[in-house]
Design a protein that fits this description.
Two copies of one chain form a homodimer. By secondary structure, chain A is an alpha+beta fold. Chain A is built from five helices and 15 strands. In chain A, strand 2 and strand 3 form a beta hairpin.
Chain lengths: 265, 265
């Protein structure tokens, strides 16, 4: 009955490429007999699965340089398939036990749930809402860089939404904590899933009344104001960037947001 | 040093009222010596804490009728304090063990983290993004009712954002799954935290091209189209509602969204 099903090939949590540079797929026969399988959905009329690797070493919760390169090579459709699969598989690897009672859990509902046989708790894949925000002051845009970013790369500030907050409150708190600015007129622009490990990036725009930065150096290496001309030059310079700025890559929501800002008005 | 600190009184996870109908606060001396304390933030210049109750019985993940009554009595400020506290405390109760290795975890960072001493995993409070959406077709609004709702109560459809989805994709998927409709022009309206147990409600508006409903009876008891006049009559009728509709209560984001729709144009 499974002859049409496809199995996503993964190297741990990393993608595996076929000869044409797309994601490599196999059949269910490629999975280990005792492998936990996650149902990813239907693609081209075929049910697709991904195997949960052994162990619970998932690596750090951000994309390493190798992953950034790999993501730049995948089509948008492949990136969506891979991202969803990676989020789910990573979650399973880190949730083999019940957080409520400590007993082992079992995969259920095609991998969209784990059940505890001891206390009957049900556990569901986690998606963490993160705000990522443009801050404008008099025609300039605030971007910052985290210490692990490649040289000259600046992006939009970002941070997790905390329990008890609205999206708009989270934006204002993050900008104040990281850059010391008060913002107003917070406005939703776009959203995007981000699979490191499983975030919902909620992209917003906001306005600061002044441009005096107080940078939180535990979070940011640097933050500064960019003119539209600087951003346009960096985007035009592509992957090499300019002397002062590497523009965010096209698969990152920061690219969408900054481009939206450059095109507005 | 703690003489100014305040401790939120809770009955399990339920609020405790003072004589004026507000939240009841005590001092740290009221906490059991071995109680885990969660730092809620500063309120009126005083640090505020909530104790994590013993055990791991947190009840079902929605507000029961007693809670709906209680929430209707609290001011907006008290509701925000209580909601944030309840989300955090509930998370601690359900995360006393490490999901990665099964060992006991310890509260850290004032209750905004739990650490595993065995495998060194760090665990953070969970916030689940949920889309809640208005669907319009030619001047009428789609609302639905879950089986556990009080009689005549209808509200906006809602569902969790899944790994790998945008907000807009989640809205379209949920409306199709629950009501059989295809929607377009999805637009963000407002967000609100919801502490049962810890959701970020992301309120959206969308447009359906037809009005033929196919209701998923495992999710919904009923769903139907309402005219602006029906909604206005129900809102004007207050807590009693009309013969056909109880309008969503003011502390629910559905109230904000439906009111936004009634006022638009």
């Amino acid at each position: 009955m499974n002859w049409k099903a496809r199995l996503l090939k993964m190297d741990g949590l990393d993608p595996v490429f076929d000869d044409a540079g797309g994601l490599q797929w196999g059949t269910l026969a490629d999975a280990a007999p005792d492998a936990e399988l996650v149902f990813l959905g239907m693609l081209d009329g075929k049910p697709c699965f991904a195997p949960v690797p052994d162990g619970n070493e998932t690596g750090p919760p951000f994309a390493n340089p190798r992953m950034w390169n790999a993501m730049g090579m995948l089509s948008a459709a492949d990136l969506a398939s891979y991202g969803g699969a990676r989020s789910l598989v990573d979650w399973h690897m880190r949730h083999r036990f019940c957080a409520r009672c400590g007993s082992p859990t079992q995969l259920a509902k095609g991998g969209w749930q784990r059940d505890c046989g001891a206390c009957n708790a049900q556990h569901f894949p986690r998606t963490d809402p993160v705000t990522i925000m443009l801050v404008e002051h008099e025609g300039r845009l605030l971007l910052g860089r985290q210490p692990r970013f490649p040289a000259r790369m600046y992006s939009a500030l970002a941070g997790f939404v905390e329990p008890g907050e609205t999206i708009e409150e989270a934006v204002a708190r993050e900008v104040h904590e990281e850059a010391g600015l008060r913002v107003r007129d917070v406005r939703y622009i776009a959203s995007q899933p981000w699979p490191f490990p499983s975030q919902l990036m909620i992209g917003c725009y906001s306005v600061a009344d002044d441009d005096q930065l107080t940078i939180d150096k535990t979070e940011l290496d640097d933050a500064r104001w960019f003119t539209r001309e600087e951003l346009e030059a960096a985007r035009a310079a592509g992957k090499e960037g300019t002397d002062t700025l590497l523009f965010p890559q096209s698969f990152a929501i920061a690219h969408t947001l900054v481009t939206w800002w450059m095109n507005k008005e």
